[in-house]
């Protein structure tokens, strides 16, 4: 999809790609990002934040940088696994774009949706555009019943208690104005799975405008999934906290 080029030449999109053990996925996701963003004609960079993955993701990232060039592929590794929240902060500090796109590197988020995010943002000047699995043509593929139930349940409870007016609260595939993301990240207190939900609740609190694009989310093929019981407890705690304080 081509994005109207007259409007957007002054804009640059920094795509933050945090990785931990994504050696198999990284070449594919990078290839897809470059394919779809080159087609759309926007100015962009991909910032890979690898946290010392033992599987050698960093080495793959270096190879990809050689292949595609250091203006498109920026490497901002860290020594060890320090978590997603701080990986985003680290990435933002390096970003030269005025817009930031956050996505997972495990192929759950398809880069073909990025030009749609950009188009919608430009049309309404949204502060945030969020991918949604729970509206229109959006959906989830490859999850078992338990995982679907947890995700749906989390969304449902949060909708009920906090009324955020956004259909997908726990997803992370989003586009932000850079200064908006900076402010949001600093205001968030939670870590882990609930972090994405807090971001969108805070966004409502600050009265940021939010657009939504239906996305199909595909479960990771390579690598291990980590959602466990402790994440669910954390989520419940954070929900109550946000309920009490926002
Ligand atoms: N830099 C960095 N990246 C991380 C860290 N933890 C996860 N990631 C990456 O963040 C993205 C999202 O993590 P995932 O493990 O896919 O989390 P998830 O989608 O909730 O769970 P599964 O896909 O089911 O494993 C992926 O690209 C991971 O490689 C971390 O501590 N540091
Ligand atoms: Mg994932």
UniProtKB/TrEMBL annotation:
<dbReference type="InterPro" id="IPR039528">
    <property type="entry name" value="DPM1-like"/>
</dbReference>
<dbReference type="GO" id="GO:0004582">
    <property type="term" value="F:dolichyl-phosphate beta-D-mannosyltransferase activity"/>
</dbReference>
<dbReference type="GO" id="GO:0006488">
    <property type="term" value="P:dolichol-linked oligosaccharide biosynthetic process"/>
</dbReference>
<keyword id="KW-0464">Manganese</keyword>
<feature type="domain" description="Glycosyltransferase 2-like">
    <location>
        <begin position="14"/>
        <end position="184"/>
    </location>
</feature>
<comment type="function">
    <text>Transfers mannose from GDP-mannose to dolichol monophosphate to form dolichol phosphate mannose (Dol-P-Man) which is the mannosyl donor in pathways leading to N-glycosylation, glycosyl phosphatidylinositol membrane anchoring, and O-mannosylation of proteins.</text>
</comment>
<comment type="pathway">
    <text>Protein modification; protein glycosylation.</text>
</comment>
<dbReference type="GO" id="GO:0046872">
    <property type="term" value="F:metal ion binding"/>
</dbReference>
<comment type="subunit">
    <text>Component of the dolichol-phosphate mannose (DPM) synthase complex.</text>
</comment>
<comment type="similarity">
    <text>Belongs to the glycosyltransferase 2 family.</text>
</comment>
<keyword id="KW-0808">Transferase</keyword>
<dbReference type="Pfam" id="PF00535">
    <property type="entry name" value="Glycos_transf_2"/>
</dbReference>
<dbReference type="GO" id="GO:0005789">
    <property type="term" value="C:endoplasmic reticulum membrane"/>
</dbReference>
<protein>
    <recommendedName>
        <fullName>Dolichol-phosphate mannosyltransferase subunit 1</fullName>
        <ecNumber>2.4.1.83</ecNumber>
    </recommendedName>
</protein>
<keyword id="KW-0460">Magnesium</keyword>
<dbReference type="InterPro" id="IPR001173">
    <property type="entry name" value="Glyco_trans_2-like"/>
</dbReference>
<dbReference type="GO" id="GO:0035269">
    <property type="term" value="P:protein O-linked glycosylation via mannose"/>
</dbReference>
<keyword id="KW-0479">Metal-binding</keyword>
<keyword id="KW-0328">Glycosyltransferase</keyword>
<dbReference type="InterPro" id="IPR029044">
    <property type="entry name" value="Nucleotide-diphossugar_trans"/>
</dbReference>
<keyword id="KW-0256">Endoplasmic reticulum</keyword>
<dbReference type="GO" id="GO:0006506">
    <property type="term" value="P:GPI anchor biosynthetic process"/>
</dbReference>
């Amino acid at each position: 999809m081509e994005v109207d080029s007259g409007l957007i030449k002054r804009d640059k999109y920094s795509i933050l790609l945090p990785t931990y053990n994504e050696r198999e996925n990284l070449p594919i996701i990078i290839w897809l990002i470059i394919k779809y963003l080159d087609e759309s004609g926007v100015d962009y960079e991909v910032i890979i934040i690898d946290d010392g993955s033992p599987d050698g993701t960093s080495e793959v990232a270096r190879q990809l940088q050689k292949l595609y060039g250091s203006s498109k592929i920026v490497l901002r590794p860290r020594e060890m696994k320090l978590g997603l929240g701080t990986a985003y902060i680290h990435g933002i500090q390096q970003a030269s774009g005025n817009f930031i796109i956050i996505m997972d590197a495990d192929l759950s988020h398809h880069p073909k949706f990025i030009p749609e995010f950009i188009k919608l943002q430009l049309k309404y000047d949204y502060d945030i555009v969020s991918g949604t699995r729970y509206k229109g043509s959006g959906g989830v593929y490859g999850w078992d019943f338990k995982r679907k139930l947890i995700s749906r349940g989390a969304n449902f409870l949060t909708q009920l208690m906090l009324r955020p007016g956004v259909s997908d609260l726990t997803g992370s595939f989003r586009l932000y104005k850079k200064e908006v993301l900076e402010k949001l990240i600093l205001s968030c207190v939670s870590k882990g799975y609930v972090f994405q939900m807090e971001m969108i609740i805070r966004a409502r609190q600050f009265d940021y405008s939010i657009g939504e694009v239906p996305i199909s989310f595909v479960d990771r093929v390579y690598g291990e999934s980590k959602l466990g019981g402790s994440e669910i407890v954390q989520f419940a705690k954070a929900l109550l906290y946000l309920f009490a304080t926002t």
